[in-house]
Amino acid sequence: MNEEYSLQDLLGQESELQFAFFNNQTAWKLGCQLKKIAEDNSTLVAIEVYAFSQTLFSYAMSGTQLDNQIWIKRKRQTVLRFGHSSYYIGQYNKAKNREFEQQVHINADDYCAHGGAFPIRIKKCGLVGVVTVSGLPQREDHQMVIDALTDLIKSVQKS
């Protein structure tokens, strides 16, 4: 699908893709699911699952660079600060005809509004972390995260 998600679609993803529980083992499964998706599609990405103020999973595929880690940090910080996916923040600012990184209160060295980072939320609890992918065009980074979360949440609900 090449068309952009609407802001409502992106908010719907955030509302729908929440965990009943999340722990270190869940983070590991999520990271491994992302790695498998990347390998199955022969894509080169860096992956991070960050929760409870620590990195619980980090993997950089052969062929990625330090720059991917810098993008991961900036995307993660955006989600932690604003509570929405980095893709939503970018699309929201695009709809407002403004550049996120050029706003006075934003340091572009610390934050970016490019897709690939998504909030990890526990139902009835709130934001506990961020899952991030870097290495593809932003919509594809975002979609990879959505696909992994969808698969993992479905499998957790069945067990």
Textual characterization of the structure:
The chain has about 160 residues and is α+β, with helices and mostly antiparallel strands. The model has no long low-confidence stretch (mean pLDDT about 95). A hairpin with a 3-residue loop joins strand 3 (about 115-120) and strand 4 (about 125-135). The protein has helices spanning about 5-15, 25-40, 65-80, 85-95, 140-159, and strands spanning about 45-50, 55-60, 115-120, 125-135. It has a single domain (about 5-159), classed as Haem-degrading domain (Beta-Lactamase, 2-Layer Sandwich), CATH 3.30.450. Belongs to the UPF0303 family. This is UPF0303 protein Ping_1243.
Mean pLDDT: 95
The side-by-side strand order for the widest beta sheet comes to 2-1-4-3
CATH superfamily: Haem-degrading domain
Number of helices: 5
